[in-house]
């Protein structure tokens, strides 16, 4: 028997998929991604994604 996903679970899955796709798109286009590191926003170059 399968467990039904809650609306919160579905939203979390959708957000993770959207972020994964956005990061893949930035890498494919050779653009950096802004990330949070050591309490600061930094740009991660496409070559490091």
Explain how this protein is built.
The protein has one helix and two strands. The model has no long low-confidence stretch (mean pLDDT 95). It is α+β, with helices and mostly antiparallel strands. The protein has a two-stranded antiparallel ribbon with strand order 1-2.
List keywords for this structure.
49 residues, elongated, 1 helix, two-stranded antiparallel sheet
The count of strands amounts to 2
Q: Please, what is the average pLDDT?
A: 95
- Tell the overall outline: elongated
- SSE topology string: HEE
Instruction: List the total number of helices.
Output: 1
Work out the strand percent. 15-25%
Give me a quick take on this structure.
With 49 residues, the chain is α+β, with helices and mostly antiparallel strands. The protein has 1 helix and 2 strands; from the N terminus they run H-E-E. The chain has a two-stranded antiparallel ribbon.
Topology:
Elements: H1 7-28, E1 33-37, E2 40-44
Antiparallel strand pairs: 1-2
């Amino acid at each position: 028997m399968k467990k039904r996903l809650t609306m919160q679970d579905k939203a979390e899955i959708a957000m993770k998929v959207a972020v994964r796709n956005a990061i893949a798109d930035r890498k494919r286009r050779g653009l950096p991604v802004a990330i949070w590191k050591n309490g600061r926003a930094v740009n991660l170059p496409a070559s490091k994604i």
